[in-house]
Amino acid sequence: MANSMKDKKHPLLNRSNLRDITIIVALISALVYNLDIVRLILSFLLLSFGCFFHYVTKGVLIRNVVLCKDGTYSVVRHPYYMANYLIDSAFCLLSGNVYLLLVYPFLFYWSYGPTIRKEENVLAEIHGEAFLRYSLDVPQIFPDAFSIKSWRAIINGFSKHRITANEISRFARFWATAFFITFIHAVKEDYFARLNLVSLKTDYSSLALLLLVVILMTISFVVRSKRKTPDTE
Fold first, then answer.
1. Band of residue 1 on the pLDDT scale cut at 50, 70, 90
2. Neighbours of 169 (CB within 10 A)
3. Most buried residue among 30, 131, 141, 190 by CB atoms closer than 10 A?
4. Can you give the pTM of this predicted structure?
5. Closest Cα to residue 135, out of 67, 56, 184, 199?
């Protein structure tokens, strides 16, 4: 019984809390590290791509019914996790903390590795040789020189009816988080500028960022409260 209970315990760092830890470290890092315009643009590009793949993948996925091989699943076997990697990497880059950006790939594989192995074992048991052939043809998390050629077909099998209210709520929270990290950078820079008497004018960009955060979080809570069916993914 003791061994059974021990097996059910989750490690300190796992898929469920990796994003929360990443966001907390990113918020703290924004108080210390600076952010230039290049990293700002790259961060929002990563976030945009991450949300796009997250959205398309949800519209393609037919859970526990068929072996998904169309759309984003023709590029990588786990496009949902690839999207998560891009989104979290955007937060890391936006923090200005290069050390967080460098260590995140290791944290990602540490956290997602057990989940990926478990899911692929289940798929192998259900679909047998079909999954084996699929796993040999399509890379796991990131596209390679061959699978990237399938990018033209990433929306194949997509249906907007598979997109739940929970997904829209998530996207709003992702962007609210990104804008809040940017808000911290803006407030910090404005504070030091005032200390050095560089600028004594009111910086309305900080207020605009804060307003965006409030609007997006409000949208997230409203949409989530109206969802009809729970989304456990």
1. very low
2. 21
3. 30
4. 0.86
5. 67
